[in-house]
Please model this.
Amino acid sequence: MLLEQIADYAIKEQTSKLPDDVIHHAKRAVIDWYAALLPGSRVAPATLLEQAFAEDLDRGSARLASGRHATLRAAALINGAASHSVEFDDIYRDAGYHPGSPVISAALAAAQATGASGEKFLRGVIVGYEVSTRIGEAVMPSHYRYWHTTGTVGCFGAAAAVATILGCNRQQFMHALATVGTFAAGLQQAFRSQAMTKPLHGGHAADAGAMSAMAAAKGVTGALDILEGEVGFGAAMSVNPDWSKATRGLGKDYHINHMTFKNHGCCGHTFPSIDGVLELKQKHNLTHKDIKKIRLASYKAGLDIIDNATPEGEYQAKFSIQYTVAHALVHGSVRLNAFLPDRMNDPDVRALMTRIEVVADPELSKGYPTQRAAQVEIETYDGRNLSHFQPTRKGDPEMPLTDEELNDKFLELATPVIGAGAARALLEQLWRTDKLANVDYETSPQKGPRVLASV
Model:
């Protein structure tokens, strides 16, 4: 049974000697999560969820991004939604999945609620990533036709993380995952509107995982064949899932070492095209006024989501390859300010969008999900025909953000929320997470992060 094999790994990981590089990459994941969380906490739906779940706030030992106290589940839910809102959260490419939002949101809430050490928190994060990324690989790519992996697969990651932090035994761990499997949900229709539902997928997964682990720790049982059963998760939500991938390399090849950290503030499917046009812009000293026509060829699974020549509003713009590429060429980047009203209505961006052709390339489509590539061609008014093949994305494992670049990303996104001094102090704390006696981070802009005792 799959859950038996997964639980065997997870229980060993509660006390194993973790490799130094795994601890380092886990801290990178937490830093990247905070970079997405802080600005996401200041916008809807997180701000509205604080109103909706007011009865669960200002009590409990977990914390929201603002430092406000919350119950474990409320913190997991609200932080999970916040960290998936500004489209800057991490990706496990081979599963098309954002693990940080559900896993770290649930793990941090559980660690704060139980007074766990920084090391124990990181163990929960690592187990959550390792378990859920593999389940994601097993059901992909067919799962992605209708389902949002962050909302579905993320449930297993959150449950695994919280069960680890709660110190669940083997049976309890299995039942935590068995129970959460029946709550796994998140439909891609949510991507195709101005709705706030997509960020809620990350929040729901964090909350469902936390709830299932908390219940399992007290003896609540689930169907232990929920993954591979005749009418289980795989049968219902995938076509011929390869369950051998769900346990392959557990405890040996750590997926958390192979994360993608976003370099643009929009849907990751747009990234190879953005990277490609920026390469041509820099190499040939182009301006948007030089460009007569752009042809973007990429993989079909991504284009099915991002081919939107007439996005309405900020959210759709983040999922429009036409808008994000045009903005990159006009303004040089796609950061949070790309979706401010003046940028959204920029006549130069809007005019360039009309000169972009988007096509699904059969060969590039075959490479999905393990390769995210684009062929970019630009025709200029002076008769030049320029082309560039972008084989991967800046931030992918083959072209990773360095620690320094990750620090810069964190400070860029955190500073407007909590101030420069608090952001730098928090960053220093995050790099020392494995040495901290607890992870009760204080991110209030008034106080800044408090100094935490070391183990």
Notes: The chain has a mean pLDDT of 95. The chain has two domains: 2-258, 268-390. The first helix runs from residue 2 to 13.
